[in-house]
Design brief:
With 193 residues, the chain is mainly alpha-helical. Helices cover 63% and strands 0% of the residues.
Length: 193
Amino acid sequence: QGGSPYTPPAGDLPIFDIGLAPILLAVLASSGGSASRRRFVLVFAIGGGYVLARLFGVPPLHWVGYLPVLREVHFIPYGTPALALAVAALAAAGVDGVVRHGVTRRRAVAVTILVIALGAWAVWFVATHQRTRVWMLRSPGFEALRLALLAVLVVGVVWARALGALRGRMAGSLILAAVVLELLPLARVDRLQ
């Protein structure tokens, strides 16, 4: 393992919810645009990848935590907001790409494969980590249905845009509605209790 002076208690994994729709939109971030747009996407992709690797304890990156001063810093409270910022920036670039430049069929296939992979991972995670206290597991059937419908909406919009059946502004509006519908329930008051 990468090692950390702050390991989570047994059976309780540090879970953070960035959102399915923003992650799918991040895949579309690099479609089309200028050199400055590509640099923007590259900076946030590298930064988000680094933070994600640190959060999951990838050894070469996680060893930075053994340096004398950095040994005293608990990374999760600082890394999670940085990861959320990176995903939000990439998702915004993804919406911009969908609206302004369209979606290639290759990107639509990538989003579809990602939805299938994330769905399989979610089923595996819930089945194997039953001691994890996640607020959404109070009603797993409702959450699974809600996320499946959101995934179908985003994938449907991406494919409609890739096939030319949907104009850019309407596609952007539908995707932003999917993001709001997904993330709005996360603002529940009892979520953190």
